Amino acid sequence: MADFAPESVRPARVAGVRLAVGRTGDVLFALDGICPHAGAVLGDGSVDDGLLLCPVHAYTFDVASGRCDEDPSCHLRSYPVEVRDGVVGVRLGGE
Ligand code: FES
Q1: What is the pLDDT of residue 95?
Q2: Statement: residue 87 has pLDDT above 70
Q3: In the chain, fewer beta carbons within 10 Å around the N or the C end?
Q4: Confidence band (pLDDT; 50, 70, 90) for 1?
Q5: Domain limits of the chain?
Q6: For residues 39 and 2, what is the distance between their CA atoms, to the nearest angstrom?
Q7: Residues 28-61: pLDDT tens digits?
Q8: 79/22 Cα distance (integer angstroms)
Q9: Mutate to test the pocket of ligand 1, among 35, 70, 76 (most ligand atoms within 8 A of CB)
Q10: Probe ligand 1: pick from 52, 53, 56, 76, max atoms within 8 Å of CB?
Q11: What architecture is the 8-81 domain classified under in CATH?
């Protein structure tokens, strides 16, 4: 958790799956890492008050649900995140 500054996101790859992993407030999140709109790397975006901002066309995604208000067809999967012994883990099997 200490590795993630508040309101931050970065690209990650877990078992070959590209993710955007970040923190908003005291909550860690993991979402699909590639923007379904036009393929941007969402981990290169930014986070503000629970929303992940795509770095290319600025669509916003709710970090908890993956919902995109600009285009509901651009919904992202969200994955459970847990911290164990200071290590951040993402469970890919969850919704
Ligand atoms: S590539 Fe993400 S909003 Fe267009």
Answers
A1: 47
A2: yes
A3: C
A4: low
A5: 8-81
A6: 29
A7: 999 999 999 999 999 999 999 999 999 999 999 9
A8: 12
A9: 35
A10: 56
A11: 3-layer Sandwich (2.102)
The answer to whether 61 touches 34, Cβ cutoff 8 Å, is no
Q: Is the pLDDT of residue 94 over 70?
A: no
Cα of 7 vs its chain's centroid, Å: 11
> Which pLDDT band, with edges at 50, 70 and 90, does 17 fall under?
very high
Q: What's the burial of 89, exposed, middle or buried (CB within 10 Å: 0-12/13-18/19+)?
A: middle
